[in-house]
Structure formats: C-alpha cells, structure tokens
Write a structure and sequence with these properties.
The complex is a heterodimer of chains A (230) and B (331).
Chain A lengths: L13 H18 L12 H21 L9 H15 L7 H7 L26 H8 L5 H4 L4 E10 L2 E8 L8 E7 L12 E11 L2 E11 L7 E2 L1
Parallel strand pairs in A: 2-6
Antiparallel strand pairs in A: 1-2, 1-4, 2-3, 4-5
Helix pairs in contact in A: 1-2, 1-3
Chain B lengths: L1 H25 L7 H34 L2 H7 L4 H9 L8 H14 L4 H10 L5 H10 L4 H22 L10 H12 L8 H36 L2 H5 L5 H15 L6 H6 L7 H13 L2 H7 L5 H25 L1
Classes of the chains: A alpha+beta (230), B mainly alpha (331).
Amino acid sequence: MWFRKDSMKPVLPLLLLSALMLCIGIIALWLTNDLTKYIHPRYVLFTVTLVSFGFIVLLYDMIVQKPIKDSIKLSMVLTFVFCGMALILPPQTLSSRAALTRQQSSYQLGDVSKTSYDEFSTDYTSFTISEWTSLLSRNPPVEQIQDKKAIISGFVFREGDSVFIARFRISCCSVDATPLTIILDSEGTAELIESDWYEITGTFELRNGEYILVPDNIQSIDTPENQYVF
Amino acid sequence: MGRQRRTIFIGLFFVLSLAAIFVRSALSGVTFPDILGDGLTFTLGILYESLPFVFLGVLVSVLLQQFVSQKKLLAILPKKLGLQRIVLSLMGSFLPVCECGNVPTARGFMTKGLLPASVMAFLLAAPIINPITILTTSQAFSNEPQIVWLRILGAFIIANFVGWALAKYKQKELITDSFAAYCADVSSHTHAHKRKFKQEIKTFSSKFTQETQLLLPSLVGGSVLAGVIQTAVPRTWLLTLSSEPMIAILTMMLLAFVVSICANVDAFFALALASIFPTSAIIAFLLFGPMIDIKMIALLRTTFTTKAIVHTSILVFALTLTFALGVHYVV
C-alpha cells in the first residue's frame, strides 16, 4: 500500500516501526516484571515514562503525517529485523559462562556502600551473597566469622578444579554485570550442576589465605524471578 | 483513501506486535546457547538503558529548535568563542541527559547557529559535569574525594582543549552534508509569527520522529557492536594488565571504550576495579568512557564527519592519557 507505482520503491517507515517495536517491547517487559533482567530497578520508572512518551509521539506522528517517501537502506532493514527479534525473543539472564569470563578476584566486590563492620547486622544468617563478599573483601579476622552460619543462594559455576556459588550484581544495566562469587569446598560439591541454582548452608574456613564456604546442607532451588543483585 | 489505508496498516502493525508478545510468552522456557543468550542480554541492556535518554535528548533538542530563537540563545552565551566554550562545557549542569541524549541536544544547538567546535566542548563535558554524575561519583568514591574533583577538572580541561583545537578547522568540515542541509532547512523554516497549537504539536511530533529515526540505526548498531565485544572478549584478559601504570591506564581506557556504560553510573563499575587498578587508571576510565565509546561514536556519526570524529577521538585519547599520567606521577 505504500509503494510508489512508478518506481516500486517501498516507503514503509521501517525506522519508525522499529522505534515503536522497541517501545512496545520495553513496556511489555515492564508489565511482565522482566525489565529488571536488563536494567537496574532505579531506572524503571524513568525508562517506562520516557519510552511511553516517545511511543505516544511516534504513534501520533505515524497517524497524522503523510509517510515520507524514501528508498530503503540496509541499515534500516537491519535495524527493523533486530528490533523485531528483540520483541519476539524471550528475555534471558546471564549464564555461568559470563560469570567465568567476568570474574575478578574473589571477594573484591559486594555491597560497596557498606564501609565498616559496624554497618553489618549481627544476624549473619540474613546476609546475602552481596554482604558476605563485601565482608570477606575486608579480610576480617578469622574469629569474627569462623563459627557464623551462612545461608547463601546463587548459581554454581566451575573454573578448573574450583567450584563457586555466584550471583550477578548490576549497577546500571546488564552490560556492567559483575559476578559476586564465593568459593565452595570441593568436597561434597562434585555433584552440583553448573548453572543450576542452590541454597547452601555452611560455615567459612580460612585455607591458604582464602575463605572457603564448607557446606553443611545443599538444597536445589528454583531459579528466582530476579536473578540479579542490585 | 490514504488515511484509511494508513489506519488499517497501523492496526495490523499492533495486531502483529501483540502476536509477537504472545510468541515471546510461549517461548519463555526456551534458553539459548550461553554465548548467544549473553550477547543478546548485553546488547539489549545497553539499548533499553539508552533509549529513554535518547528520547529525552531529542525532546530537549526539538524544544530548543522550536521554541528558543537563535537570537535569544546567542544573547545568553558569551560572544568570545573561548568563553562560549567554557559556558557550554558547564551546561551539562542544566541539561543532565546522559551522553546518548547529548547528541540530539548538540544537534539542536547547532541548528541555532552554534559552531560545531563549541558544541563539541558541550558534548564531551556534559556527561561528566552534571549533578547526577557528580553525585554518583562522590557516592562511589566517598573515601577518595579527590577522584571526584580530578574527574571534573579533567573533563573541563579536555573538553575545552578539544573545542579550541577543533575551532581551528573550517567548521563545515566537521559536520556531515546532510546535517548541514538540515540546519539550513530548520533556519529557513523559522517562523516569526505564532503558530496555532495544533500546528505546533504536528511540527513537534514531526521533528521528534525525524531525529529518532536518524539516531536509531546508530544506537542499535552501537549497542550490538558493544554487546558482541563484551561477549567475545573475556574481561579477565583485560584485568591481568594492571601492573604497570601506563598499561593499567591504557587497559582501563580500552575497557571504558568497550563497555559503553552510562556516565551517571560508571563510577560504581569503576569502584569494583579500584582495588586492582591504580587511581590514575580509574580516572582514565571515568574520563574516557563518557566522552568516547563504541556507542557514542556510532551516534556522533549521524552528525559529525569521520574526520571530526577521528581527530576528536585522538585528541581525547591523548589528553586523557596525559592527564592520567599526570595524576599518577604528580598527585
């Protein structure tokens, strides 16, 4: 319907449709609580507001303006195809492969807003992986944590002979995701399946200058709806 | 008849979009091979994070074009180009739209007669010298306040130096022919009389759509490229290069270029690396990334010539490296 009869050049507004598809995709992700698989929750309101505004303006323009006759370029087609794919493909979270390729030194990360021991709760069982990695990065004295029970949930990945439990932390969006990792005792963890989620209860032991989590109990859990730590 | 067909087409588009969302729900249990899934997640993370900022920048740009006269804008800015660049480099304080949104805002400035060299000073400084970035940097580095000040100082010096250097060129050589034609078109259609509200809305939506369509391929292309590199290049390779100061600085600049993370949160990302890399390398990351990264280059290409982008990139690279080395050996 939007072809010029004389030259048969299509004038579909591919880029406008691409922008609309992106907006619809983002709003749909928000409605299904999947938007935080890509961006930090603090940006959700801002994102949805601006994207909704953009969607309304673009749709209004498509309705009231006459389509601009223009030849199709490869960049338009590729953009259109990509935005269409983004609309159809289900949201994914990062894999254990990403954890392996992004892992920095253990215990270098964590909840960096906490700056002193005093800020940590005395109830260590409520600590998340974020708080544990933050505490361990400060090289606490052994006596502070050796008898403390830790209950940590995350996915498992392996690097060589080492087994880790991890969760990704995001500051802005998925591209800056960095794994928070804790080394597990290799005994009793041989049967753990990589990329599967577990809740591990155990205590920490200092071995060769590194804190290792020795599991007392390992429970397989469902993949949580929100797999990231923010 | 044309309008009726358009309405049918739009209806069809929405039906197909809804169908696509149902297909997505049906495929929700499907997982892709790790490398493909990770690449998509990185790419879409960048894209979904950037798009609202692009819309915000386009909004600012269109409002500038439509409602701020050239006379008024030039009246509030200093006449002397050097002072004008200084004021523009500090304008991010009032227009904190992130580097993605700064490109359409910069386009808006140029349609009002500001020189590309002066606007480049704005483009380079605004992502860093704005309240949000300053606040998040101070939060992340609360124990090292000197990082905040060094970041602001470095951005100010680099942005103004690059603006000064680019002012030596013929300004027409810095922008693409298509954008120059667009600027000429905008100024020839500037109306002295007041338009009706409905006409203003139509003009606004038309400009908004045009700018969005222009930027979208670059935004998508830049996001895909950054996502692919993030997937293909293990970050662990880069992190082994932290021993020598020069190598550490270059490594962090490369990481900043590749990661393409927004300036208003990159401080938290950099903080996680602060125990591995020296302060000078962290400063280099915090300066280089907001000015030049994969996504930004793709967006700049919509407006500036390849020559302008290459020369700007080289200057920013050299100045950032010099500043970081200065921090290492002097501070």
